[in-house]
Write a structure and sequence with these properties.
The protein is α+β, with helices and mostly antiparallel strands and about 425 residues long. The protein is built from nine helices and 20 strands. The chain has a 20-stranded mixed β-sheet that branches. Strand 19 and strand 20 form a beta hairpin. The longest helix is centred in the N-terminal third of the chain and has 19 residues. It is elongated. The termini are far apart.
Amino acid sequence: MGGLYGILHLSSVQTWIIKKATNSLSKQLNTRVSIDKVDFSFFYKLEFQHLLIEDQQKDTLLYAGAARVDLNDWFFAKDKIILKYVGLEDAVINAKRSEAVWNYQFILDFLDKNPSNQKKSNQIQLDLKELQLKNIKLNYIDRWIGRDMIAGIQLLNASFKKADINQLSFEIEKIKLSNPSFAQRDYDGKRPADYKKQTSKNSSPIAEQNQPSFQLSIKKVILENGLYQNDRTTKRAPYHDQFDGFHFQFNSIDGELTNVTFKDDKLNAKVKLSGKEINGLSIHKIEADMNFTPRLMEFNNLDLITNHSHIRDYYAMNYQSFNEDMIDFITNVKIESRFRNSIVSSDDIAIFAPELKDWNKTFDVEGEMNGTINNFEARKLKIKTGSSYVNGDLKIRGIPDIDSMYITFNTSGSQSNLKELTPIV
């Protein structure tokens, strides 16, 4: 018995066994599944190199260069496995579709045909203490809808206080992200306009109700040198002399999020970030209490410092669908904002409206704004530059069509200095 135990500890024997298993799995999935090397110390450690899973079109679905899992002494604690350390390096996930079905659907179908495996795993409690990811990339290519999302991370370190994997409940002390990136590109997909999504025969409303809801709390998240890019296909070329809402990219994103919670599709966090947009907008600091839901993005106690402006107090965006309405931001997103003790520079506005680049003015602003960009009103408005000022209520309709734009302003007091206002008028 001891000889068998010793043989099973040999990496070459373990690799041979795993290759037999992956060959069997390849036949069942009708695709290629392979692992080059395995090293497993019973109940303590698992390492493997070069895991490859192809989709049924023989393209790479998952590749992982190396992975390591350190366990607790499972032999003496059979009801609970503690994953003391999970590490993954040089991994790529390629999820894609050109029609209604994703390239990984065959794996979900296979698991659905073998529910006994899932039931057994749920009888064992899983906990996680430390997670490390190096050089990870996710390619989410959706030619059916017309949206590609590419996410990557050079290094992620996470320390868990609690990780109940079965109940999808996680408490994390700290996450540090080095060189994270996210890029989204929207374009016209292949899905017909009259297409109606078919309900899966295997879906069960009762089963979905019994699934635990995802819960997450993170004490601190540190971001270093992040990148966020958003691009949408347009007939025109991207602008390079002003901010382009259809083609923009923020680089050098640094900062931290604290007291992060996510539950019932609601994300709350205290944010403090900085970053630079490629066409000139520089966010020296944005600090706020953020609330993010499927219908609302809200910033309380806002403190925003840009190249030449300083905006304070409150800003919120209301929408029906974040992804869809952000595409038509001017007409579909309702803005609510309060400005208190704020300073707005025409140089910063000129990044969005180049026609203002020669104003060279700084405005003290207070007031409240409500509505969409193309149909909004500002109340209790106070704008001051130099010795000139204007107070009142403002309504603007028709932006960005200047020819049909309608402006109503009810002033409660004003004073003007012709010399100060000459560059504007």
